[in-house]
Specification:
The chain is mainly alpha-helical. The chain has one domain. It contains 20 helices and two strands. A two-stranded antiparallel ribbon has the order 1-2. A hairpin with a 2-residue loop joins strand 1 and strand 2. Helix 1 packs across helix 3 and helix 6 runs antiparallel to helix 17. The longest helix has 24 residues. The radius of gyration is 23 Å and the shape is globular. The N and C termini lie far apart (about 85 Å).
């Protein structure tokens, strides 16, 4: 019964946010980020989403396209320029599709890329494109908080198998993707903690709800058995909270220390129980880690034996033929499958975006709400990049591409909209109002 209520709650929330998408495209961005988690909850409550598993993707994609149409028709669209890092990211994704042609298992590689192409476009291209103002960043953060409540409660109340939700297929049950569940939980923890640390939330009830989202998000990660997500979200929060508080008041610094303590104590409490099974056993951790390293080593060996691959790569998806699966370490897979030039372009893009974002986070002209939204994007970029060191593939890293692209767009927005604060006060009125025509001299 509880999961039915959460599914209905989520569906109503999506409908209400859709009504505001034309003026608030940031809500559509939040729905895109929630896509993989939302479809699991909706499938638990409504049979139509289970029978037609593409339906949730289709609905959210249509909502995003409506928001894109509104952006294109806006008067400010002609003046918009996209940062070069965003273009570089799209170039890397485009090259990965092209490289499937010379992969040793070309037919399989093309099939995999085509199946993953719609979510890659939605996450990596459409979501960043919808961000055009600081208000859009704020709306994306608010949308994540609003969507997180029914989704996180749904994950807690839904029937489960060993790690993920139990999904019916005919007369049997299969396990839903626990990594998508845990990744969404980590993003919700970052969103709630950063919004709390900003000091813009005044009402006690809202603060209690945000703390609950943080703790329950950590619990969702823990119960899914996703070790990388739990470690990654803790490291991300501990890294970024001091950065955000450094340019804020002493009161915000104390608040950040309190939130860091809440995160650490919650994780410690969960790990003290036995709900995680043997996922945290030292022997299991060593075996899984060594398995990933051996797969990466095998792929690197195949790459080194093909000098032509140093420039153009082995081809996206070739690891499935060469080592039997993807190697779970995306940077290694990118070097081997896309070649050194394209992988260097991707690494340069990540470095350039990170460097600019770090500098802008220290800009004292940013309002607390804008800093929280901007810091949220940058922290989620770091979080998903950490996850790429232990899971995923080139075609299966849509959330990471999305946050890299969104952070790149956000740096351009912050640079554009905060420049007015660097103009001396006595001159700001002249920039804000058109000059009056002078009377003729008699």
């Amino acid at each position: 019964m509880g999961i039915k209520i959460c599914s209905l709650w989520l569906l109503v929330t999506i409908c209400l946010l859709t009504l505001k998408v034309r003026k608030h495209p940031g809500y559509a961005v939040a729905m895109i980020w929630s896509l993989f988690a939302a479809e699991q909850i909706l499938q638990q409550g409504f049979g139509i989403f289970l029978a037609r598993q593409y339906l949730v993707n289709l609905i959210i994609g249509a909502i995003a396209l409506v928001a894109v149409g509104q952006q294109v028709s806006a008067t400010s669209f002609d003046k918009r320029t996209l940062p070069k890092e965003f273009v570089y990211l799209l170039a890397v994704i485009g090259f990965s599709g092209l490289s499937t042609i010379w992969a040793p298992n070309s037919n399989q590689a093309i099939s995999i890329f085509v199946s993953q192409f719609p979510p890659m476009v939605l996450f990596a291209a459409i979501a960043p494109f919808l961000l055009n103002r600081l208000d859009d960043l704020r709306d994306a953060l608010k949308g994540m908080i609003v969507l997180s409540a029914p989704i996180i409660l749904g994950f807690i109340l839904a029937p489960r198998l060993s790690r993920g939700l139990a999904v019916k297929q005919g007369i049997s049950e299969v396990q839903a993707n626990p990594l998508a569940e845990a990744t969404f939980g980590g993003i919700c923890v970052i969103a709630a903690v950063f919004l709390l640390s900003s000091g813009v939330v005044r009402k006690i009830l809202y603060k209690v709800c945000l703390i609950a989202i943080s703790v329950l998000g950590l619990y969702v990660i823990y119960r899914s058995g996703s070790r990388g997500q739990l470690i990654g979200v803790v490291l991300t929060v501990l890294l970024f909270l001091p950065i955000l508080s450094r340019v804020s008041s002493t009161k915000n610094s104390i608040r950040a220390l309190f939130l860091a303590a809440v995160v650490l104590l919650s994780v410690g409490f969960f790990l003290s129980g036995d709900g995680g099974g043997n996922r945290w056993d030292r022997r299991v951790l060593t075996e899984n880690g060594m398995g990933r390293l051996e797969a990466a080593q095998s792929l690197l060996k195949a790459f080194s034996n093909e000098p032509s691959a140093w420039m153009i790569g082995l081809g996206c998806g070739s690891s499935r033929r060469l080592i039997g699966s993807y190697c779970h370490i995306v940077p290694v897979e990118m070097i081997c499958e896309l070649g050194i030039p394209m992988s260097c372009l991707f690494f340069f893009t990540c470095f350039s975006v990170s460097r600019t974002a770090f500098v802008q986070l220290y800009d004292s002209s940013l309002s607390p709400s804008a800093r929280a939204a901007f810091g949220f994007l940058f922290a989620c970029m770091a979080f998903t990049m950490c996850l790429s060191l232990k899971q995923g593939s080139i075609t299966g890293s849509s959330p990471m591409y999305s946050f890299i692209g969104c952070t790149a767009i956000a740096t351009a927005i912050v640079g554009r909209e905060t420049v007015i604060h660097r103009i001396p006060l006595q001159f700001r009125a002249r920039f804000a109002q058109p000059s009056q025509p002078q009377s003729p001299v008699s």
